[in-house]
Design a protein that fits this description.
- The structure holds three protein chains of three kinds.
- By secondary structure, chain A is an all-alpha fold.
- Chain A contains twelve helices and no strands.
- In chain A, helix 5 packs antiparallel against helix 8 and helix 11 packs antiparallel against helix 12.
- By secondary structure, chain B is an alpha/beta fold.
- In chain B, 44% of the residues lie in helices and 22% in strands.
- Chain B has a six-stranded mixed β-sheet, with helices on both faces.
- In chain B, helix 21 links the parallel strand 17 and strand 18.
- In chain B, helix 6 packs across helix 7, helix 9 runs parallel beside helix 10 and helix 13 packs across helix 21.
- The radius of gyration of chain B is 27 Å and the shape is globular.
- Chain C folds into two domains: 134 residues, no CATH class; 168 residues, Orthogonal Bundle (MetI-like fold), CATH 1.10.3720.10.
- Chain C is mainly alpha-helical.
- Chain C is flat and about 80 Å long.
- The two termini of chain C are 25 Å apart.
- Classes of the chains: A mainly alpha, B alpha/beta, C mainly alpha.
- Chains A and C meet through helix 5, helix 6, helix 10, helix 11 and helix 12 of A and helix 1, helix 6, helix 7, helix 11 and helix 12 of C.
- Chain C: This is Peptide ABC transporter permease.
- Chain C: Its main location: membrane.
- Chain C: It is found in: Cell membrane.
- Chain C: InterPro entries: BPD_transp_1_N, MetI-like, MetI-like_sf.
- Chain C: Keywords: Cell membrane, Membrane, Transmembrane, Transmembrane helix, Transport.
Chain lengths: 307, 623, 319
């Protein structure tokens, strides 16, 4: 990730001198890259902040104890409805549980659900698109009509239908959310495969005797996955939102377990007297989604420049 | 012809005058009537000039010390550096340079239409008593369209796709209040007629996509001349058009300039076009004007080395120097191609080849097909170059791809090296792949951006399992040497190389398996003029060394003349004429071949016809 | 043209049929035992009488092979009969028909707000020549699509109902009750409209024909409104079906947040008690709306873009 970002100014520099078309001389790359990298991020403080937010969320998901020593499930009834303070950063809920520690521990469930959702969409959608784009003919027609049908059902409705069929729970919600975004992955993957397959360099490889599986593995896949990875980053944010929406509606983890959407939902009942209960977990969700979307945009720009 | 034009001019002019007197405050409009009434162009031009901006003394346009740069992340990138340029009233000045020389930037900077990030750093653009470089956006708008017209580069994308042609022409008149809502549509039709469009009433009601490229360019010319500007900037006005259309468009621009005394700044990469049309030429390189002067002087005694180089390699002028290069490229193969042994020598025999593409059903119609290649037969001999010449859409590239079996033919027969490969599959198809390679038009697209140059060149070797890793690398090094690239590029990526270098890499890849046939699909048309000549020479040298045969696809007769032994001219999917190169150029039999030859700028034809370069003959004298 | 209309209609029917089939597979086939789920749904206790189970199985046809069930269901669905709600026993069609007007009001209002404000934002952001203002305006939509809808709703309720008591927090009463949920619902959709239109406008403003217009001496407003907007809104038009679908889906969340009656509430409730016929009815209804909106867009598109008939035929010709 950081490597590809570092390549950004380098590729730009390679593209821009229109006046002289001489090849750049190979220089001491490492030193240049570190300087370029720092300049790249200094110019984009938002991107830097986004990376930090995502890193913090990932850390919280795997090592929640790094951030808080409190038990998310254990409440101190005497301390209920405490507003945010130095002791309780995000305040406490109706049972006196520390909201901050619930948010930190909730990261694990929410992140897990999100990753499953993105993985399902990426693998299933990517495979559909790859097969459709590379095989073509009737296979493509059948697969893409199927994708059209998936697209015709609003994503949340499709997820709700799947939840109805599969039942409640974090993993089931995640699978439901992932399947709902299979269609967009399939579409992007197919479009990319078609674009690359029609590229002159692929025909050049074919005409110089390269066999179809080498063309697929060495030319088509490496050149087609870029935009799909960007989509995956973008879908990460969408999945966080969808998963938290479903758990807000109450189809996620069972009650005592903390999950971001559930936390917001629980706080609803105390909107009038304990604003922090809904507000702060919601802010966390918003910050995470904003951060991943910002990173997706940076990747997108970088890919666009590389072409 | 001339009568008709002046007639239409007179008629529309009276409209224009009436309106401009009614409701305009622009001083430019005052000059127009005198211009319109005067029969004598030169007189009209001069009086117009004096009356309009008397006192300044200088010409119509005077650029002094103009510098333009683009803002980039790595800092400002200068595109135009301290340029001086003058255009007199009624004069055609050509601004010549290769891509990236800053010529288009300079042209756009005049009217303040620089792309995003572009900025005028220094200098002045005097035009009609104003310094355009110092004017505000609002003030510039009164100049654009009204006093300076612009004919853009690519007519296919320069008209708004959702508006009718007539509306787009009329818009200029409405913006500058030269016509009322009622009169504008009528005037637009008259302008379209003046721009040389047949059936202007119908064209005015059509949308851009319903018109051909040439017709769209005429519509854009109508827009440029609508307000009878003092000057037209034509930015490569024909480079996106077919050669036969190019000449008509340029003729028409020249005609209009003569008729109305409009000055033209003609931006072009083609010195031949410039030589044909311009009274003066300014040569631009790396953001500077390296040389400028009367056309004859630039062509006959260029002082700057860059001009000399450009002159030697100008696309439509290469015929001049083929006399020197062709014999060398031809010596060895021509010995081999004795008429008696031709039969055994034929490498590729194509018989009655047909390719049809299905067209989608249109409303009410049954399924139709497009016959891209129709009953084409030809032979490519060993060690020989056969050129397939035609305009875009003539089916020449499809033919090449049929020969390589990259697409399958509808009917006909293809024999390669005695083996009928028309429907070859499996092992026989792989034998074809090994013997026949291709070099593409665009070296930016034909190399996988993720591959290193070594991987690109060794890919055919890997595909056929030739040698081990080390020997393949050695072969790549050897091939790079042959195409005159240093071994140090082996580890580079295509993006790090220039266009010419990439095309050399593509050539190296095509030669890696030592094929008998290489199809060259417009191999130089994406390259700059000076690079073109080098790559052509390289191809000729490699043929002399390896004995490879070329099937050379091109739209450019001048290039073909330099490299081909025999030429087949294609039009609408059919070969209309085939013959040895010299015969075809000196005595073309088919009228289409003659039309193609005529489309080569006249100046170079004169040069070629005359034993020694004639001096002082300007195109207008010839015309 | 007639051929074009007929082909589009046939496509729409095909998609609808496939959507129904898909919902059948997911909802009636995927759950191991839909009947016991349904039986559990209708009752208070988890103990289900076996006799009642058998009765239900017969009633819903689950004792027959899947294919027979499918044909049976499809033929009934074609007659507009999607079965009866498990919990209330009312027909699914009437359940949806009763809840629809409230949701139509909400989504219609939200779509109006989203188009007006999203489109206006995109136009103004690309029009202004102030760099900083443009930067700020263009970053707003990405904020809008990143914030969870339900959270926006809660924040708005907190601010306008509990703090300044301007609008009612909950319920269906009239226009005043409509404003907060409609604004909430409009935010993500409006942000999407703004993002798409702004991107499209910026691309369009770089087109050579815009340069031609500038070379004519046209002013900024003429270029923006006269040349760029129409070309730029064409791609935005193609996603309107997706937007309407998204609005309906988000209504599920918003109606829950604001405790409004409507299709969304019905859906959420049906999912909670696994009322399969109702969920299936809503899913198919969602597909129907999507297909209808797209059909309308397809039919008016050629009127807005003169190239479209050509483009539709060119898409399949060889490159």
């Amino acid at each position: 990730m950081s490597r590809s970002l570092a390549a950004d100014p380098a590729t730009r520099a390679g593209l821009e001198p229109q006046v002289e078309a001489t090849a750049p001389t190979p220089g001491p790359r490492l030193g240049v890259d570190v300087r370029r990298l720092s300049r790249f991020f200094l110019r984009r403080p938002g991107l830097l902040l986004s990376l930090i937010v995502v890193a913090l969320v990932a850390l919280a998901a795997f090592w929640p104890t790094l951030f808080t020593g409190r038990d998310p499930l254990l409440g101190v009834p005497a301390d209920n409805f405490q507003p945010p303070s130095a002791r309780h950063w995000f305040g406490t809920d109706e049972l006196g549980r520390d909201t901050y520690s619930r948010v930190v521990h909730g990261a694990a469930l929410s992140l897990k659900a999100t990753l499953i959702a993105v993985a399902v969409a990426f693998v299933v959608g990517g495979a559909l698109g790859l097969v459709a784009g590379f095989v073509g003919r009737w296979v493509e027609d059948v697969l893409m009509r199927f994708v059209d049908v998936l697209l015709s059902i609003p994503a949340l409705f499709l997820s709700l239908a799947l939840v109805t069929a599969l039942g409640y729970g974090t993993v089931k919600v995640a699978v439901a959310v992932g399947i709902a975004s299979v269609a967009s992955f399939a579409r992007v993957m197919r479009a990319e495969v078609l674009r690359v397959r029609q590229a002159v360099f692929v025909e050049a490889a074919r005409s110089s005797g390269t066999r179809w599986y080498s063309v697929l593995g060495r030319h088509v896949l490496p050149n087609a996955t870029g935009p799909v990875i960007v989509l995956a980053t973008l879908d990460f944010g969408t999945a966080v939102l969808a998963v938290s929406s479903l758990s807000f509606l109450g189809y996620g983890a069972a009650p005592p377990a903390p999950e971001w959407g559930t936390l917001v939902s629980d706080g609803r009942n105390y909107l009038a007297n304990a604003w922090w209960l809904s507000t702060l977990p919601g802010l966390t969700v918003a910050a995470t989604v904003l951060a991943t979307n910002r990173i997706a945009r940076a990747l997108d720009g970088e890919w666009a420049n590389q072409r | 012809m001339t009568d008709h034009r002046t007639d239409s001019h007179g008629r529309t002019d009276s409209h224009g005058d009436a309106d401009s007197h009614d409701d305009t405050s622009a001083d430019g409009a005052g000059g127009i009537p005198t211009d319109g009434h005067s029969g004598d162009h030169d007189g009209g031009r001069n009086s117009d000039h004096c009356g309009d901006h008397g006192g300044t003394g200088a010409g119509l346009l005077a650029i002094r010390g103009l510098s333009v740069s683009y803002r980039t992340r790595t800092g400002p990138l200068p595109a135009v550096r301290g340029v001086d340029l003058d255009v007199e009233p009624g004069e055609i000045v050509a601004l010549v340079g290769e891509s990236g020389s800053g010529k288009s930037t300079l042209a756009h900077a005049i009217v303040g239409l620089l792309p995003a990030g572009g900025h005028i750093d220094a200098g002045s653009v005097r035009f009609g008593g104003h310094d355009l470089a110092a004017l505000s956006e609002r003030e510039l708008r009164a100049i654009r369209g009204a006093r300076i017209g612009l004919v853009p580069q690519d007519p296919t994308v320069s008209l708004n796709p959702v508006k009718r042609i007539g509306v787009q022409v009329a818009e200029v008149l409405r913006i500058h209040r030269l016509a009322t809502r009622r009169s504008a549509p009528l005037e637009a039709v008259a302008l379209l007629e003046r721009a040389g469009l047949a059936e202007p009433e119908i064209r005015a009601r059509q949308y851009p996509h319903e018109l051909s490229g040439g017709m769209r360019q005429r519509a854009l010319i109508a827009i440029a001349i609508a307000a009878q500007p003092k000057m037209i900037i034509a930015d490569e006005p024909t480079s996106a058009l077919d050669v036969t259309v190019q000449r008509l468009i340029l003729d028409h621009i020249q005609h209009l300039a003569d008729e109305f005394g409009t000055a033209v700044l003609l931006v072009t990469h083609d010195l031949g076009v410039a030589a044909d049309r311009a009274q003066r030429i300014a040569v631009m390189s790396q953001g500077r004007i390296v040389e400028s002067g009367p056309t004859a002087q630039i062509l006959d005694s260029p002082r700057d080395p860059y001009t000399q180089r450009l002159l030697r390699s100008a696309p439509s002028l290469t015929v001049v120097h083929t006399a020197h290069t062709v014999p060398r490229a031809r010596t060895s193969p021509s010995v081999a191609v004795e008429p008696s042994v031709v039969a055994e020598q034929s490498l590729v025999v194509v018989d009655n080849l047909v390719k049809e593409f299905p067209l989608p059903r249109t409303a009410g119609g049954s399924a139709r097909t497009l016959r891209a290649v129709s009953d084409v037969s030809f032979t490519v001999n060993r060690h020989e170059t056969l050129a397939l010449v035609g305009e875009s859409g003539s089916g020449k590239s499809t033919t090449a791809r049929l020969v390589l079996r990259l697409v399958d033919s509808t009917a006909g027969r293809i024999v390669l090296d005695g083996d009928d490969v028309t429907a070859a599959r499996g092992a026989r198809l792989r034998r074809l792949r090994r013997q026949a390679q291709i070099i593409y038009q665009n070296p930016y697209a034909s190399l996988d951006p993720r591959f290193s140059i070594k991987e690109v060149i060794t890919e055919p070797l890997r595909a056929f399992g030739v040698g081990d890793r080390a020997s393949r690398t050695a072969r790549a090094r050897d091939l790079l040497d042959r195409v005159a690239l240093p071994a140090s590029v082996l580890e580079r990526r295509p993006a790090e190389l220039s266009g010419g270098q990439r095309q050399r890499v593509a050539i190296a890849r095509a030669l890696a398996l030592a094929p008998q046939l290489v199809v060259c699909d417009e191999p130089v048309s994406a390259l700059d003029a000076s690079v073109q000549a080098q790559v052509l020479e390289l191809l000729a040298e490699l043929q002399a060394d390896t004995g490879v045969a070329y099937l050379f696809i091109s739209h450019d007769l001048a290039v073909v003349r330099q490299i081909a032994h025999r030429v087949a001219v294609m039009r609408a999917g059919q070969i209309v004429e085939t013959g040895p190169t010299d015969d075809l150029f000196t005595s073309p039999r088919h009228e289409y071949t003659r039309a193609l030859l005529e489309a080569i700028p006249r100046w170079s034809q004169q040069r070629q016809a005359a034993a020694s370069p004639s001096s002082g003959r300007t195109p207008s004298a010839k015309a | 043209m007639r051929r074009y209309v007929i082909r589009r209609l046939a496509q729409a029917v095909g998609v609808l049929w496939a959507a129904y089939t898909l919902s059948f597979l997911v909802l009636d086939y995927l759950p191991g035992d839909p009947v016991s789920a349904m039986a559990g749904a209708g009752m208070d206790s988890s103990v289900v009488d076996p006799a009642r189970l058998d009765e239900l199985k017969k009633q819903y046809g689950f004792d027959k092979p899947v294919l027979v069930q499918y044909v049976d269901y499809l033929s009934r669905a074609l007659r507009g009969d999607f079965g009866n709600s498990v919990s209330t026993g009312r027909s699914v069609t009437s359940v949806i028909a009763d809840a629809l007007p409230q949701t139509l009001q909400l989504t219609g209002m939200a779509l109006l707000l989203a188009t007006l404000f999203g489109g206006g934002l995109a136009l103004f952001a690309t029009y202004t020549s102030q760099r900083w203002l443009r930067q700020i305006l263009l970053s707003l939509p990405s904020l809008g699509v990143s914030i969870p809808t339900f959270w926006i709703g809660l924040m708005i309720v907190q601010l306008f109902s509990f703090r300044i008591r301007l609008f009612p927090a909950f319920g269906n009463d009239g226009l005043r009750g409509l404003i907060l949920p409609a604004v909430t619902l409009a935010i993500p959709t409006g942000a999407m409209v703004a993002q798409l239109l702004a991107k499209s406008l910026l691309t369009t403003l770089d087109e050579p024909y815009v340069q031609t217009a500038r070379a004519k001496g046209a002013g900024r407003a003429r270029i923006h409104l006269g040349h760029a907007l129409r070309n730029a809104s064409l791609p935005a038009l193609t996603i309107i079906g997706l937007l309407v679908g998204q609005l309906m889906a988000n209504a599920v969340v918003i109606e829950t947040v604001f405790a409004r009656n409507g299709l969304g509430r019905v859906t959420a409730a049906a999912v909670s008690i696994q009322d399969i016929p109702v969920v299936q009815g809503v899913v198919v209804f969602g597909a129907l709306v999507f297909v209808l909106v797209n059909l309308v867009v397809d039919l008016i598109y050629p009127l807005l873009d003169p190239r479209i008939v050509v483009a539709a035929t060119a898409r399949r010709s060889p490159a």
